[in-house]
């Protein structure tokens, strides 16, 4: 598997393998695959783990956080099903990779993280990539982003015990929220919440493992 020749792998071949892995794990939506083909995950993984950026595995990023596994990014994006005119809130900017993938599929992305360092580093990558439809902000995402609400789509990339009330309230009617729910140190269930005229419908999608949604801002 870890053949040293991998280092010398041609980028086109590496990309094909990356996309093949995504498809084999259930990411089949052509728009999502196209967005993930376009946004190079290698730019969002730094330091000693950068040579593993194209593997289907979560990897450490600064502030003790993780960049999600690519197939999970794909499956969550697919479940969220953002449209080209949608405004999306992402809670948990982390590396910025998921936000960049979303930005290729919708009109505007607001992404928030409790760690300033992560927001700043992600913003620098968005700038280098010429992405201009992402607004990244330091904020406690468990409260949502009331000034920009309501949202067509909300994606939470940290695990909450329950879908946070303020986020439910900031979802448009007809809107969709995807959120991992469960105890932070255990396996969680990814759920999709759809808001109707009369209430909220919940679908359980799959088991996942995310870092916890923590209230308040981080120290860095
Ligand atoms: N979507 C990211 C991965 C997120 S990891 C990516 O593509 O790389 C989860 C992130 O959620 C972490 O960066 C963590 O700092 C952030 N987080 C946890 N609780 C939060 C909260 N209450 N508000 C905002 N961000 C939070």
TrEMBL record:
Alphabetic keyword roster: Cytoplasm, Methyltransferase, S-adenosyl-L-methionine, Transferase
BP terms from Gene Ontology: methylation
Residues of the active site: 68
Location of this chain's protein in the cell: Cytoplasm
InterPro entries: PCMT
Signal peptide range in chain numbering: none
Recorded GO MF terms: protein-L-isoaspartate (D-aspartate) O-methyltransferase activity
EC id: 2.1.1.77
Reaction catalyzed: [protein]-L-isoaspartate + S-adenosyl-L-methionine = [protein]-L-isoaspartate alpha-methyl ester + S-adenosyl-L-homocysteine
Predominant localisation class: cytoplasm
HAMAP family named in the record: PIMT
Role noted for this protein: Catalyzes the methyl esterification of L-isoaspartyl residues in peptides and proteins that result from spontaneous decomposition of normal L-aspartyl and L-asparaginyl residues. It plays a role in the repair and/or degradation of damaged proteins.
Family named by the database record: Belongs to the methyltransferase superfamily. L-isoaspartyl/D-aspartyl protein methyltransferase family.
Protein name as catalogued: Protein-L-isoaspartate O-methyltransferase
Organismal lineage: Bacteria, Pseudomonadati, Pseudomonadota, Alphaproteobacteria, Rhodobacterales
């Amino acid at each position: 598997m870890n053949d040293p020749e991998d280092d010398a792998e041609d980028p086109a071949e590496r990309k094909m393998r990356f996309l093949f892995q995504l498809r084999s794990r259930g990411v089949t939506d052509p728009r999502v695959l196209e967005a993930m083909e376009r946004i190079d995950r290698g730019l969002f993984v730094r330091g000693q783990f950068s040579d593993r950026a194209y593997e289907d595995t979560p990897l450490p990023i600064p502030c003790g956080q993780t960049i999600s596994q690519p197939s999970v990014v794909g499956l969550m994006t697919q479940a969220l099903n953002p449209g080209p005119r949608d405004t999306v809130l992402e809670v948990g900017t982390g590396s910025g990779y998921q936000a960049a993938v979303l930005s290729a599929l919708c009109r505007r992305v607001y992404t928030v993280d409790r760690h300033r360092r992560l927001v700043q580093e992600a913003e620098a990558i968005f700038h280098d990539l010429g992405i201009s439809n992402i607004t990244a902000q330091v904020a406690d995402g468990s409260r949502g982003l009331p000034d920009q609400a309501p949202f067509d789509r909300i994606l939470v990339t940290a695990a909450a015990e329950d879908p946070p009330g303020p986020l439910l309230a900031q979802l448009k009617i007809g809107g969709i929220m995807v959120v991992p729910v469960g105890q932070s140190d255990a396996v969680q269930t990814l759920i999709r919440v759809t808001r109707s005229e009369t209430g909220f419908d919940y679908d359980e999608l799959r088991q996942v493992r995310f870092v916890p949604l923590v209230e308040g801002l981080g120290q860095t």
